[in-house]
Design goal:
Layout: E1 3-8, E2 11-12, E3 20-23, E4 29-33, E5 37-41, E6 49-56, H1 73-85, E7 90-97, E8 107-120, E9 128-136, E10 140-150, E11 159-169, E12 181-185, H2 192-200, H3 206-211, E13 229-233
Antiparallel strand pairs: 1-2, 1-7, 3-6, 4-5, 6-9, 7-8, 8-9, 10-11, 12-13
Length: 235
């Protein structure tokens, strides 16, 4: 049986959910043309939606995982509320491993906490069941660029420089060049986010570090240890 680790930002769920549902919907639109029947207008894909239900124990079980020691259910509930009300995106990560430790494909996506529901059932004793809904978050913003061109109505040899704002998503921005690779030795207290922030100027690029060091960071993106030597592509 494969092993799964579920991370909400930096929080590892103590018990991995038994089921994960990922919905990837297109925004295609069907329209009806005069005398031509229906046609399907193809649009860019919509935001990915993720749902799962997890067990939050009230007591420490041998099958539960607590990297920083046992935490009560109230700690996790407060953490979920901070994610929901914090008005900031975070990383949702699922690492999958075979029983022999060999890695399977992973899930790594920036999301927002849309909703969570807490269920208490007498059959579960004091433990809680929490159903969580996440939605993909896409970076967006404006970027100013200088464009040099002729001014309308001016003489042909007259030119002017003016500024326009262009809406960009993160996927349109250039990614770090990967033709160069630098080695980095992990120091005590280092985090993968901190290293990405220092080296790339953007903590969210920790995924680039993790994907290029799966053979070294075997326990998931938060399993950094002092003395490890990792590769930093594009630095």
């Amino acid at each position: 049986m494969a092993g799964y680790d579920f991370y909400l930002d930096r929080c590892l769920l103590p018990v991995a959910p038994g089921r994960l549902q990922v919905s990837i919907r297109n925004e295609n639109k069907t329209v009806k043309l005069i005398n031509e029947g229906q046609v399907n207008l193809l649009k860019a894909a919509g935001l990915t939606e993720i749902e799962f239900e997890c067990m939050i124990p009230q007591v420490e079980y041998p099958f539960a995982v607590y990297p920083s020691g046992f935490r009560s259910a109230s700690w996790y509930l407060e953490y979920f509320e901070r994610l929901k009300s914090g008005q900031r995106p975070f990383q949702f990560i699922v690492t999958r491993k075979m029983p022999d430790g060999s890695p399977l494909y992973g899930t790594n996506i920036k999301v927002s906490m849309e909703d969570y529901r807490i269920t208490e059932d007498a059959e579960d004793g004091f433990d809680l069941s929490v159903k969580i809904k996440l939605k993909q978050y896409r970076e967006y913003g404006t970027k100013s660029v200088s464009v040099k061109g002729a001014v309308t109505g001016a003489p042909a040899d007259t030119s002017s420089t003016y500024t326009v704002s262009v809406e960009l998503t993160r996927s349109q921005e250039s990614a770090p060049a990967t033709n160069k690779v630098r080695s980095y030795t992990v120091k005590p207290g280092d985090t993968i986010f901190g290293i990405a922030k220092e080296m790339y100027g953007d903590g969210s690029k920790y995924t680039l570090i993790y994907e290029n060091n799966r053979d070294t960071i075997k326990g998931g993106p938060y399993d950094l240890r002092a003395g490890q030597v990792i590769r930093l592509p594009g630095v």
